[in-house]
Amino acid sequence: MLPQPIQQFVRVFSRLPLLGPRLATRLALHLISLDRASFQELKNALIQLEALDRCPRCFFLKNENAKLCDICADPRRNPRIIAIVEKETDIMSLEKTHKFSGHYLILGELPEKGVLENIQKSRLQHLHARITQELNGMTDEIIVALNPNSFGDFVAGIINEEFKTGAKKITRLGRGIPTGGEIEFADEETLGSALERRI
Amino acid sequence: MLPQPIQQFVRVFSRLPLLGPRLATRLALHLISLDRASFQELKNALIQLEALDRCPRCFFLKNENAKLCDICADPRRNPRIIAIVEKETDIMSLEKTHKFSGHYLILGELPEKGVLENIQKSRLQHLHARITQELNGMTDEIIVALNPNSFGDFVAGIINEEFKTGAKKITRLGRGIPTGGEIEFADEETLGSALERRI
């Protein structure tokens, strides 16, 4: 009974893990009720996301025409300290503390089950290559900035094993963060001391 | 630190009442991680919403090139029974019951405060004109299908007053205990109506 364009919108948008059919329907109805200028602004904002790309070095986001992301391209940052994070929002949270001026590697969202997916394995290999080619095979520090839960611990174990000859030290974020919590939701203070007291 | 297109996306999409900045950020990051075909599909679904319009008779949605919405255009439906609803999703809920084959009027979302906005007043006037022009000034029934709360009651009072000479009867949705509900948890008001309107 709803016109086909709405049905199509709901079908496509409710596939996104964050929405679901009810929210997608309400979103469609809200979008239709907007004036033309607001709608155009939303449409353009979506279209502009196409101009984004992943940094080939750390897998953070960059503009299509830039070679590296802003972080990798920043000469004031120390490339010998590398924080391994799960996702983009974790970088954003860590950056907000202003207590870290190293580089990153985004591992990609970890699966629920206790095995690494191919994408994560290949990104770790990529870090290996980066350390070999750019840092003569040895970096100063790898900070495993994964959520402090049992799967994070498991992946930290893998990283410890794989990089024991490629990093002078391998640390984790201090357990200022409550076990079972998520980096994304930690306040800056907690996250800051977790960085200072990394173990 | 996030590239400008994401910041812009978050700025624009977090203005939507259903999203907010955190969800908008996660949505942007998710959209970027999609493959090109899925992204195009989402983009096209959004763009297609532009091809929608409101039905000039009941204010439900219709395709741009259709004269009326599917409901108003359906000759099997009875135009002399008109349900006044707040929003599109209410029509969808009522249609799912398969127990109503009349027409509708969408009033638009009622404000929090106890006064009708101009859009609602003009839509009621519009219904007046519809009854005068299409139904010789008198319709069989107006069903006030507004949420059963005190503001719904207030608006129902206004509608009663305005259409007392334009409708043979004006009804509201029956009140009682929802199917599957429990007497123990019903509030007094609901239980009172259930007693008064027992079947």
Strand-helix topology:
2 copies of one chain form a homodimer.
Chain A: H1 4-13, H2 21-33, H3 36-48, E1 52-54, E2 61-63, E3 78-85, H4 88-96, E4 102-106, H5 118-134, E5 139-144, H6 150-162, E6 167-172, H7 188-196
Parallel strand pairs in A: 3-4, 3-5, 5-6
Antiparallel strand pairs in A: 1-2
Helix pairs in contact in A: 1-2
Characterize the structure shown.
Chain A is an alpha/beta fold. Chain A has two domains: about 5-50, Helicase, Ruva Protein, domain 3, CATH 1.10.8.420; about 75-195, Dna Topoisomerase Vi A Subunit, Chain: A, domain 2 (3-Layer(aba) Sandwich). In chain A, about 40% of the residues lie in helices and about 15% in strands. Chain A contains seven helices and six strands; from the N terminus they run αααβββαβαβαβα. The first copy, chain A, has helices spanning about 5-15, 20-35, 35-50, 90-95, 120-135, 150-160, 190-195; strands at about 50-55, 60-65, 80-85, 100-105, 140-145, 165-170. A four-stranded parallel β-sheet of chain A has the order 4-3-5-6. A two-stranded antiparallel ribbon of chain A has the order 1-2. Chain A is elongated. The model of chain A has no long low-confidence stretch (mean pLDDT about 90). The interface between A and B is large, with 48 and 48 residues.
